[in-house]
Amino acid sequence: MTERETTRLVAWSQELRRVHHRLREALDVTRAALDEGIPGESATRELLLYCHGFCAALDSHHQGEDRTLFPAIAAVHPELRPVLRSLEQDHSMIAHLLGGLSAAVDRAASPEELDRHLEGIAALMENHFRYEERQLLAVLETLELSAAPGEVLGPL
What we know:
The chain is mostly helical.
């Protein structure tokens, strides 16, 4: 195996860490926008932008994993199917929470309600990311998958 091939194999674990980091940052920016508490229409527009952007990025990340990454892992490591099913269940729960946040933002819910939505998403997302990294990073270092990282892990 050439050095370039080895670098590409290891890159999937690095890509996953990088995307998780960017999603954590996007959540932090969204929460900071809410914490600023600037009243008025411009603050609502800003929060809409942050929340919808964050929701779309996180949902896209999970759809890419479910569609491309997890089937590739299951094909090579069938013993990880229970782990992958658990992660997919998390994706479904997170999607449900994102839907609740999006609806709350669309109806201009109070900052307290929006914060509760973000807190729930943050807790589940962080737990999910940590579990996923513990279970899959070593596997991703040897996974041979020919796909664009944005297609597999989201457009971040």
